[in-house]
What we know:
Elements: E1 9-10, E2 16-17, H1 38-41, H2 63-98, H3 107-125, E3 135-137, E4 144-146, H4 153-199, H5 214-245, H6 253-263, H7 266-277, H8 279-288, H9 301-311
Antiparallel strand pairs: 1-2, 3-4
Amino acid sequence: MWPPPKGVYLDEYFNLHFPPETRHGDNLEPGLDDILDPHWTAYPPQGLPVGINIFIQRYWMWGVLNCKIFAMLGGITGTVSIMSMVFIGYDRCRVIVGGITAERISTSQALLMVIGLWVYATLSSIGPFLGWGHYGLEGLLITCSYDYIKKDWLNQSFILYTLISHFIIPMMFVIYFYSKITKAVISHEVELRSQAKKMGVDSIKQNKNNQESMEMKIAKVALTNVLLWIGTWCPYAIVVTIGLVGSYSTLTPLVAGLPSLLIKTTSSLNPLVFAIAHPAYREALAVEIPCLGIGTKPQSKVANKTEVTATT
């Protein structure tokens, strides 16, 4: 392309070009001081930014209030996503480790947990609207989240509280629950092999096709969930920690922006893991939402009863 166009542009190979003096914060509309930290504007343009408004402008175009609301909603849903994994791990740990003697969570108890979780997530995310903490633009200037750049104590204490209560403590619980699940499954497998050896048979399982046991499948799902959870949330937690300690030289817009985009994929990845690897989840999905069910829809009780009668 010759002569080259002026300003910031993408060539036919999707390479980003810009004059040497161009900065990330050039041409921003006035009035964004409350949500825009000068740290982000000192860098050259970063690409490729994503978001709906990128088709119109390359920075946040919905105003200060909507930026804070967007960040608050992200905080609420992110907290719910994290805490839901903790509750799921707790429920599975009780059932699998406790065995047939374990008391299952009732529908009313599960409903109270869900309501309490959403209430807690909402209350813990409205602090910046009450003067504790702050929401602002993220590195790529097209999304908003927790402002971990500001150095005042009110903001840093809020970020520290969020980091500990919404990441470190839940991660410890998740690892604890799924470690107990995996340990119980392995112990069960060892016990079955020991009994089979005493009886002089290869296996005492009912599965004649020597397929993988349900316990091992559950253990693999547990391990996958833990690794997925850690892999998606750790990069963002590291970025937030860097902001807390003040090592801003490593926080380029891309370094800060990409982990934020990664954690937004968690809401899509977790259901996929459950759907692909957990038979009970697939069956429930096929019953409640047949169009999203994976595999054959389970027969109804009436059909099962008819089949049993006919066989008899």
